[in-house]
Design a protein that fits this description.
16 helices
Length: 304
């Protein structure tokens, strides 16, 4: 027994090359992680540091004169609060409806009883590779009355071919015996979908929900093109784009008086603060959804 244990320990002994590879691997990924994190860290420390020092580019690695009044002052930035409401509402509503449509369409395309299922599925896939371009898209939105209309944020994103394909593939990995058993017991198609398919497909639905939320939150083009005549419908990204491209807009965006001091009128500080506000919420969502990503990966690995 002792000899077998000794042989086993020698067999699994880590070589110098393995140790060197692990050290290099960890070092490379650690450096890569720092490179990815630093821009957000730099923005954040500049938003909480003394505004005069920020204006003089004296804040690099460590915050100085820490305060959070810049974030409080955003309430005095013209139209910013309204753009927050627009962005949050379109993210919640658009993502929820997109997930529901993707789940229904993905489930439907797995049913052999669907009329011309292959034809509709191929037509869905084709849209991933071909599109008419921006001008025809705009003309289509104009003809449908979706310009300067809040529904222009919601309706075009309901059908997401890539997400539907992900859901379809995942549902096909669920044992058909579960659905057959429920059908034999008298469950309707809608009951099977809501009671069996949706709970089991939670990992992939959470995944496409993150995709949809990030897309809706960061979307700029649709607001820039479709809502050009309706500033009250600007998203946060559109409002930030306006601010970043015109310092004069920033200078007039802050209301005079109140708790806003002249130091807070630093355009660089306002740009940094608004940029941080647009980034933080979506960064906070991912850690809560991480476990669903892992669960989906593990299920896919077990089922092949």
């Amino acid at each position: 027994m002792a000899r077998d244990a000794k042989t086993s320990s020698l067999r699994y002994k880590t070589s110098f090359g393995d140790k060197l590879f692990m050290v290099i691997n960890v070092t490379v990924f650690a450096v890569f992680t720092l490179i990815c994190i630093f821009p957000f860290y730099y923005l954040f420390i500049n938003t909480i540091s003394d505004n005069d020092l920020v204006g003089k580019n004296l804040i690099t690695l460590i915050p100085r004169g820490i305060h959070f009044s810049n974030y409080i002052a955003l309430k005095d930035v013209s139209d910013f609060a309204n753009s927050v409401i627009v962005t949050v509402s379109r993210t919640i509503i658009g993502t929820s409806l997109m997930v529901l449509v993707s789940a229904l369409a993905g489930y439907l395309t797995t049913k052999k009883e669907m009329w011309h299922r292959s034809l509709w599925y191929r037509m869905l896939v084709i849209t991933m590779y071909f599109n008419a371009g921006t001008i025809p898209w705009y003309m289509n939105m104009l003809g449908l009355g979706l310009t300067d209309n809040y529904l222009g944020y919601i309706i075009p994103g309901l059908v997401a071919p890539y997400n539907i394909i992900l859901v379809k593939t995942y549902i096909e990995s669920i044992p058909a015996s579960l659905e057959e058993s429920a059908t034999i017991d008298g469950a309707s198609a809608m009951q099977v979908f809501s009671k069996i398919i949706l709970p089991l497909a939670k990992p992939i639905l959470a995944t496409i929900a993150v995709f949809g939320a990030v897309g809706n939150w960061n979307s700029l083009q649709d607001s820039l093109i479709l809502m050009s005549n309706s500033p009250e419908l600007y998203t946060m990204q559109h409002r930030l784009w306006v601010y970043l491209n015109s310092s004069s807009n920033l200078a007039t965006a802050m209301q005079t008086g109140g708790s806003v001091t002249s130091a807070m009128l630093n355009t660089k500080v306002i740009k940094y603060t608004i940029s941080m506000v647009t980034v933080i919420p979506i960064m906070l969502v991912y850690p809560f959804m991480q476990r669903y990503f892992e669960e989906g990966i593990m299920l896919g690995a077990v089922k092949g």
